[in-house]
Amino acid sequence: MNYSKKDIPVLFEADCCVCGGGTAGVPAAVMAARGGSGTIIVEKGVSVGGAQTRALVLPFMPTFVEGSDTPIITEIKKRMLDEGIDMDDKVTAFGWFNPEKIAYIYDKMLQEAGVKILYNADLIDAVTEDKKIRYVIVNTIEGLVAIKAGVFIDCTGDAVLARISGVKTEKGFEKTGNNQPMSFRFEMGGIDLDRLYEYTRSINDNWCATKPPYFEIALARHRDIKYPLEPLFVAGFERGELTEEDIEYFQAFTITGKPGCMSMNCPEIPVKFKATRAADLSDAIVYARSMIHRISKFVIKNIPGFEKAYISREASMIGARESFRIVGKYQMTENDYHERRKFDDAVAKTAWYIDAHGEKVGEYLAKGEYYEIPYRALITNEIDNLIVAGRCISATFILQASMRIQPTCMSLGEAAGAAAAYSKKRGIAVNAIEWDKVENDIKAYKK
């Protein structure tokens, strides 16, 4: 099917256009703007933050690398504290946050940096010429409009801009074709957290090292390992209250600044639903919503502390752990992880384990060990003015399972924004930049 070509108005022109206002997109836009680039960020929802604010993925998982917090991450923690939210529980390495507060903070950071935010804008297409993206086409309330920019940063999480621009991508586990299973998170309010904490201790469930207001309840059965909650959940299955799929992954975290509320890191949607198929994504949401209501009814009936609880919020975005990944100038592999590889053009470092849901793989690095992610994994051979940041950088399925956590994606976004600003100042294509020179250049405006 063909559709006729149309005259499309140019709504904005900028030095840098960030597509996707998620975990990587906000740091990318802020750093590009602070570095002197006129910047616009295009977001299909009504808040930036992506997985943090719309998929309700909290708290931050840790990189386990001392001193790995970038200036933007440090600034976010300070701003959260100014808003009355302490992200540090003083025991674990988690970064506890409040989705509504962080969305507000992100808006402020973008505005203060001079970034134009374009909400309710879906990325549709790209116009390329001579190995460069000239325009992106987005759908807005005004219809189709174009945005012109010198540098484009793909922070869509799904490599959308890269794919429509002709960049080679991969998807799923190379051995099976399966994506990591998705989640459809929700929040519950009205929980007696102290009663819940005492219950977990009464069944010798010592998974969580902290007490409310920083508290986690986790796991009945996962990857063939049985946990203290497993008998309760199996009994629920035998009574017809749960399915086997409901039991496989159960987890919930308290939400700072929301007394009596927990963010439910479940249900985990069966792997048969692919994160790279439009019909599967829709079917997965319907399927997961029924799981949400089974799980919530079960915990209200059976877990002390949940007696008066209720569903208070449902995610406005499905939580995809992995979908499409670019094939960049350097493709990271599990060997980079196993060998703790370091790079001259490193833009991030992490020691998070190989966290591949749906696959029986995993390895933990010893304390003090880590690997690095090179700038070359963010750039492509096909497009000279495109940088990719976030979970869709150039990596194999297994390596991506380690680097996909939020602090790492934020670091990648920050690096992408800095590179975009450097490209504009120096007149060098982003896929020809020498990263050590960018590092020296950005010291003057890192906040």
Can you tell me about this structure?
The protein is of the alpha+beta class and 447 residues long. It has 2 domains: 10-175 and 322-442, 3-Layer(bba) Sandwich (FAD/NAD(P)-binding domain); 186-314. 30% of the residues lie in helices and 19% in strands. The chain has helices at residues 25-34, 71-82, 99-113, 160-164, 193-202, 230-238, 244-248, 278-302, 334-338, 397-403, 406-426, 435-442, and strands spanning 10-19, 39-42, 116-118, 122-129, 132-140, 143-154, 169-171, 186-189, 216-218, 221-222, 225-226, 251-254, 262-264, 310-314, 324-326, 346-350, 371-374, 386-388. The strands form 5 sheets. Strands 1, 2, 3, 4, 5, 6 and 18 form a 7-stranded mixed β-sheet that branches. A 5-stranded antiparallel β-sheet has the order 9-12-13-8-14, covered by helices on one side. It has a two-stranded antiparallel ribbon with strand order 7-15. The termini are far apart. The model has no long low-confidence stretch (mean pLDDT 94).
Features:
about 450 residues; alpha+beta; FAD/NAD(P)-binding domain; 2 domains; 7-stranded mixed β-sheet; 5-stranded antiparallel β-sheet; 18 strands; about 30% helix; globular
CATH class group of the largest domain: Alpha Beta
| Number of DSSP-assigned strands | 18
> How many domains make up the coordinates?
2
User: Sheet bearing the most strands, described?
Assistant: 7 strands, mixed
Our estimate of the beta-strand percent is 15-25%
Question: In CATH terms, what is the fold-level topology of the largest domain?
Answer: FAD/NAD(P)-binding domain
Task: Spell out the CATH superfamily of the largest domain.
Answer: FAD/NAD(P)-binding domain
CATH hierarchy: architecture of the largest domain: 3-Layer(bba) Sandwich
The helix count comes to: 12
